[in-house]
Task: inverse folding
């Protein structure tokens, strides 16, 4: 039976959209010591694409929704990618302090999670979000500047860019 999940409206960055992010952040994805996390990895395609199309060492997806995470893990059975893994969990419960890149398509997540993601990231980590932290948090943290990329193709929009910063 499908797991009951609050806020289960689902969308994805398309393959084309993620290729653009790989180009924009080429320096980070070309790092052979790079560790990429997709927080809320859905059906896992971004982690798989990152492992196939960049030089990073590891690609890890964390997904709360059991069935989505299971589908993502099953995709790995047909692929020769030993550096990709999927974890069925709330990402806030896990240690992501080895991350060099964190991506989260967090547009549908509760607004407080946006700043939680910033807090979870280690120093020097590239953080790429669908939505930046809320205004109150930004006013309290004026030194943290989020910049917007050019539009990234997603199943739910073709006009919105992602927000990014490097954790200080
Ligand atoms: C918009 S989808 C993103 C899918 C994929 N990462 C992409 O960008 O194409 C967001 C996913 O985040 C998951 N999610 C929401 N809150 C989460 C949490 N606290 N921990 C782990 N996953 C979460 C949802 O279940 C959903 O599958």
Result:
């Amino acid at each position: 039976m499908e797991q009951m999940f609050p806020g289960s409206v689902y969308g994805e960055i398309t393959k084309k959209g993620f290729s653009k992010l790989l180009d924009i952040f080429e320096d980070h994805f070309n790092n052979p010591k790079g560790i990429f996390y997709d927080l809320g990895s859905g059906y896992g395609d971004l982690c798989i694409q990152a492992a196939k199309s960049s030089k990073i060492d590891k690609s890890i997806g964390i997904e709360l929704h059991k069935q989505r995470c299971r589908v993502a893990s099953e995709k790995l059975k047909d692929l020769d990618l030993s550096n990709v893994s999927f974890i069925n969990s709330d990402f806030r419960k896990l240690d992501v302090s080895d991350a060099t890149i964190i991506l989260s398509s967090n547009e549908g997540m509760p607004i407080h999670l946006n700043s939680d993601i910033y807090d979870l990231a280690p120093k020097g980590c590239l953080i790429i979000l669908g939505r930046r932290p809320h205004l109150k948090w930004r006013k309290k943290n004026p030194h943290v500047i989020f910049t917007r990329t050019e539009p990234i193709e997603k199943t739910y929009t073709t006009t919105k860019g992602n927000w990014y910063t490097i954790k200080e």
